[in-house]
Amino acid sequence: MASIALETARPRRHGIPVARIILFILLGLFALVYLLPFFIMVITSLKSLDEIRAGNLVALPEVVTFQPWIDAWGKACIGLTCEGIHGYFWNSVKMAVPAVAIATLVGAFNSYVMTKWRFRGADIVFALILFGCFIPFQIVLVPMAQILGLLGLASSTSGLVMVHVIYGLCFSTLYFRNFYMAFPDELVKAAMIDGAGFFRIFFKILLPNSLPIIVVTVIWLFTNIWNDFLFGASFTGGGSQPMTVALNNLVNSSTGVKEYNVHMAAAIIAALPTLAVYVFAGRYFVRGLMAGAVKG
Amino acid sequence: MPSLSIRNVVKSYGSVDILKSINIDIADSEFLVLVGPSGCGKSTLLSMIAGLDSISGGQIIIDGQVVNDLHPKDRDIAMVFQSYALYPNMTVAENIGFGLEIRGVPKAEREAAIQRVAKQLQIEPMLKRKPSQLSGGQRQRVAMGRALVRNPKIFLFDEPLSNLDAKLRVEMRTEIKKLHQRLGTTIVYVTHDQIEAMTLATRIAIMKNGVLQQLGTPKEVYETPANTFVATFIGSPSMNLVPARLEGVDGKPAVRVANDGGEPIVLPLYRPTREHERLAGQNVILGLRPEAITDGFGEHPAEALRRVSCPVEVTEPTGPDTLAVLKFGRNEVTARLKPETEAVPGQPGQFMVDMSKAVLFNPETEQRVA
Q1: Of B284, B247, B281, B297, which is closest to residue B267 (Cα–Cα)?
Q2: What pLDDT, on a 0 to 100 scale, did the predictor assign at position A7?
Q3: Quick one: which of A138, A243, B32, B344 has the most CB atoms within 10 Å?
């Protein structure tokens, strides 16, 4: 590492240094290791079942077919119904979008109160909220199921949203608090003198200037909530299951032919939203992490 | 009726008193500068006037109304912050208009007010820009615009120039003064820079360790400082303080400055008073501004001048004058000489002390006695 760092720091005089070439080869290898499974998923999802049985795993499809994608979306059998995964996809959307939005907003608001309207014991409250980040999912399953039952939210998407909001706001509060600690107090004071009240200062001054940390929080929460399997499997049933649970049921079904191409297509569909979030917001992600880490 | 009264105001955190019974009254359209070294409590006092800090004791009265428990927005004040505190997500126009918008001023009226202020401050071409696209001086103007647009009773400035470079600072200083002369508003201005205080203020409040040391016009605090702290804090280079003894020479009171192995320096007082006679035989600290020790530079009443001979240690030409460090008895003093002075470092020279400018302090209490 040290030699590479030195090499890149030195001005280049003799073309491309050897260390640089080694670096790129290494990076290329790692990229390949990461991309190969995805590559196989994509090509398998574009092959017919016959071709999969006959051919080699890494060979490109001889005839490209989108039928597996269409089947995965609209016709594949999950449990007893054969309507594809689209219903479950929307279940996941209905779960993840409100959960992310609410957890982000509540986290931002918590942090606003804890940093700009400091009250006695604010640090203890923050420590307790932070503690929530370290509670493993498994140990809350039973009590959470009881609470959802008491609230009449068992087996519903709303119940799942609530669970994810509770877990998510620990992380969002952590992110926003560190960001707002570095947010200049003078802006809040200026807004107070301008006549802005408690909520207006939050919505007009702090929130519009929080884009980097909003992006970080949204990416983090969305990836976690969308990919969650345990809560989805535990607290939902039948028609309200999220994508991850449906995918498992599809792939693990023990009856009929294993339609690998359809499974691959369904798996890629399940992963697309998180991929899309990274592609569109990735730039802000890095910037946001820096903004949170370095004061200013 | 005074525009702003600060009565016995105290600020304490736990058992620590940050401000100890401050009393200041200022009239309408005065320019009050709170000045002092860092940690003296000047910014805290400003925050308390603004309503951003609570008041532990005493009263703050704006225009006859006790504002102790009034929210900042109801105090009819505007503030310019050290960091400018412009809202980064809003354009210049939105920044200036934000306070009006909250107060429900109709859009057309608001636009007109923004235009008026922008014209006053010459920031019209920048109204559509974001603060991040402005230079330091422009941001400063926008911050002032935001305060001006609401036409408040009192303007509060919290070290507004300390983030600017030296040249711009002088320019903006002049502009703030022009603005005050044109609008005639009441201003409370915090700075640690005594030159800003002297140039801008109609009255200066000098603070140290939470105690008001002196409140007076720039001329008063410069010529008759209340104590040795004020004497050395105001003025650059600062006032020379020389331990001396007051005694009668030929029946007239004079200041005697001891000299190692040589003749003591004896300076007969100019127009001695009863107070001087009462102090005869006591130790004092003689305070002399550099311009009171000269080689004939500047205007001085002839009958107040006393000749002294002292060795020159260093000369520092500044352009309009030359500063010289002289050995004055056992002490070193700074003198302000002609730019083309004949003083030569290492050699004795003939100088004159203007005793009409001399002040005397009590060496124990450090308060001015005469």
Answers
A1: B247
A2: 46
A3: A243
CA distance B261 to chain A (A): 60
- Alpha-carbon gap, residue A191 to B98, rounded angstroms: 8
Among B256, B336, B339, B246, which residue's Cα sits nearest to residue B300?
Answer: B336
Name the minimum distance, in Å, from the CA of B196 to any CA of chain A: 23
> Is A296 part of the contact surface with chain B (CB cutoff 8 Å)?
no
Cβ neighbours of A184 in B, within 8 Å: 83, 85
- What pLDDT band is residue B40 in, cutting at 50, 70 and 90? very high
A53 touches chain B (CB under 8 A): no
- Model confidence pLDDT, tens digit, residues A141-170: 999 999 999 999 888 889 999 999 999 999
- What are the backbone angles phi and psi of residue B122, rounded to the nearest 5°? 55, 50
- Whose CA is closest to A99, among A243, A218, A215, A232? A218
In this model, does residue A13 exceed pLDDT 60? no
User: Which sequence spans correspond to the domains of chain A?
Assistant: 15-65, 86-293
Query: Which ipTM value was assigned to this complex?
Result: 0.85
Helix (H), strand (E), coil (C) string for A269-287: HHHHHHHHHHHHHHHHHHH
Task: List, for residues A195-243, the tens digit of each pLDDT value.
Answer: 999 999 999 999 999 988 898 899 999 999 999 999 999 988 778 889 9
Q: Is B73 on the interface with A (CB under 8 A)?
A: yes
Does B38 lie at the interface with A, CB-CB under 8 angstroms?
no
B52 and A CB contact within 8 Å = yes
CB contact under 8 A, B83 and A184: yes
Chain A segment 167-226 residues within 8 A of B by beta carbon are 184, 186-187, 189-196, 200, 204-205, 208-209
Q: How far is CA A99 from CA A162, A223, A282, B95, in A?
A: 7, 12, 21, 34
Quote the CA–CA distance of A44 and A54 in Å, as a whole number. 12
pLDDT mean across residues, chain B: 92
- The position carrying tokens 């696209």 is B133
Contact B270/A at CB under 8 A:
no
- What's the CA gap between B122 and A65, in Å, rounded? 67
The pLDDT confidence band at residue A78, using thresholds 50, 70 and 90, is confident
Lowest mean pLDDT among A1-15, A191-205, A231-245, B224-238: A1-15
The fold of A86-293 is MetI-like fold (1.10.3720)
- B1 pLDDT band, cuts 50/70/90, is low
* B47, B81, B155, B188, best to mutate vs chain A, most A CBs in 10 Å: B81
